[in-house]
Amino acid sequence: MKIMLMKKSVSHKNHAAPGFTIVELLVTLAIIGITAAIVLPQMGLFTSGNRMTEQINKLSRDLNYARSEAITRGTPVQVLSNNGTNWADGWVINDLGNNAVTLLRQTGSNTQPIAKGTTTLVETTNGGTAGDITFRPDGRVLNAATFLLCDSGNTNYGKQIIISLAGRLEINSNKDRSGATFC
């Protein structure tokens, strides 16, 4: 009986070890760096835009609430800045009926401002007192007003609420009715 041993054939070819070459890694890092340089500045604008939308929605929600309460209760309801004419610190909603002031809702405070970061919230009125909006029992306001929410870090982006004498709200982004930017 003959035993045959099989010899393994040995190849002299060089087989590369599995992995990435330094060139492949550098190309990948360059692509990641370029993508980050393009995307990261836009993320700041996106975050700023979302923050401003949240802030303007809080104000419009409370203005609509005050108008609704004035109609429902049949008494004047006042939206008053927490800090004089600085609406960024928030506001209170008061029922002015029955010769007494009744607090209905408070939003924000000096320690928890509504306008955060680089945003400002300013009111301009037509003939009234800045820092105060009063809805009559029929839902109309005593004086028309405009609120501007602007970001000093991005003057091309802003929000505006216009309160007509009828008490209706109009929200605009970036430009007013005439097409001019307001921030």
The total beta strand count reads: 8
N-to-C order of helices and strands: HEEEEEEEE
| Tally of domains | 1
Task: Please name the fourth-level CATH homologous superfamily.
Answer: minor pseudopilin epsh domain
Radius of gyration: 31 Å
Provide key terms for this protein.
183 residues; alpha+beta; minor pseudopilin epsh fold; four-stranded antiparallel beta sheet; 1 helix; 8 strands
Describe this structure in words.
The protein has 183 residues and is of the alpha+beta class. The chain has one domain (22-173): minor pseudopilin epsh domain (minor pseudopilin epsh fold). Helix content is 28%, strand content 27%. The protein contains one helix and eight strands; from the N terminus they run αββββββββ. The protein has one helix at residues 22-73, and strands spanning 77-81, 91-95, 102-107, 119-125, 132-135, 145-151, 154-163, 169-173. It has a four-stranded antiparallel sheet, with helices on one face. Strands 4-6-7-8 form a four-stranded antiparallel sheet, covered by helices on one side. A hairpin with a 5-residue loop joins strand 7 (154-163) and strand 8. It is elongated, with a radius of gyration of 31 Å.
